[in-house]
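We were asked to recover a plausible sequence for a given structure. The inputs and outputs are reproduced exactly as logged, with field labels preserved.

PROBLEM: sequence recovery
POSITIONS: 275
GIVEN STRUCTURE:
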């Protein structure tokens, strides 16, 4: 008698791995926290946490390192989603850290690079020992060491093996709500070095610079002062999936002006302790 064939879909395998990682962290650590910005990756992580511990509540708080340069739509979504799930929201405020002298404003006004001291200060204050960042990098979780000394913490990456396309397929399958800026809309923008930045209080027009209304969407959500939009007519999840499948430029490469500060911008932030 032949044995029945049991196959797991690609998304099911990714989901199972991520849920396993989250459950292991809760079992091994005392005070984990999920970094939540209101962007699509952290929204998917929150959905995974919801499924991992249902029907109970998510057993750890979420933390947003708030630079004060956020898109209003994203903040509104963050607050609404946290309220729906009944989870604790911890806000680590860069503006408050600036006022207290913990960090200093960068000459260019971008605040992503001064998030790290604010994050580490909050980790120490709340004694978090494991952090779920949203950013993805290759990670062999099976080799992890869950032992930490006092005042130490580790970074855990449940989305290590997920691609941008995987995220969008999961959003479609799970019917996960996202902020509207991820879909095509009309917005006043300026073209700076081939990147389309929205005109706002954190990124005003420069002298002699002309703005125009473009049909755009955001592939990734960061500070309004350094995150560019892309030209797009993709106004539904299905259209976004088709667009992402055809693109050959990474989401950060296409949209993040702060990564152009140096060729090793992301590695610098890992070394400093953000990731």
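RECOVERED SEQUENCE:
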């Amino acid at each position: 008698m032949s044995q029945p064939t049991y196959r797991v879909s690609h998304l099911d395998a990714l989901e199972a791995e991520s849920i396993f990682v989250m459950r292991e962290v809760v079992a091994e650590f005392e005070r984990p926290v999920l970094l939540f910005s209101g962007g699509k990756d952290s929204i998917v992580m929150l959905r995974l946490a919801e499924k991992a511990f249902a029907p109970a509540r998510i057993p750890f708080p979420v933390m947003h390192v708030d630079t004060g340069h956020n898109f209003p739509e994203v903040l509104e979504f963050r607050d609404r989603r946290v309220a729906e799930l009944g989870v604790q929201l911890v806000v680590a405020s860069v503006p408050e850290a600036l006022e207290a002298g913990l960090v200093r404003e960068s000459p260019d006004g971008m605040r992503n690079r001064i998030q790290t001291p604010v994050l580490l200060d909050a980790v120490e204050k709340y004694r978090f020992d494991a952090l779920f960042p949203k950013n993805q990098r290759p990670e062999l979780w099976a080799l992890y060491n869950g032992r930490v000394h006092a005042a130490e913490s580790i970074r855990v990456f449940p989305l290590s093996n997920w691609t941008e396309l995987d995220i969008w397929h999961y959003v479609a399958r799970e019917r996960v709500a996202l902020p509207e800026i991820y879909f095509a809309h009309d917005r006043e923008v300026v073209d700076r070095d081939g990147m389309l930045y929205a005109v706002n209080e954190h990124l005003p027009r420069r002298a002699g610079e002309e703005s125009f209304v473009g049909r755009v969407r955001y592939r990734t959500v960061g500070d309004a002062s350094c995150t560019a939009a892309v030209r797009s007519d993709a106004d539904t999840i299905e259209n976004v999936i088709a667009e992402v499948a055809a693109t050959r430029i990474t989401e950060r490469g296409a949209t993040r002006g702060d990564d152009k500060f140096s060729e090793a911008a992301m590695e610098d932030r890992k070394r400093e302790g953000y990731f």
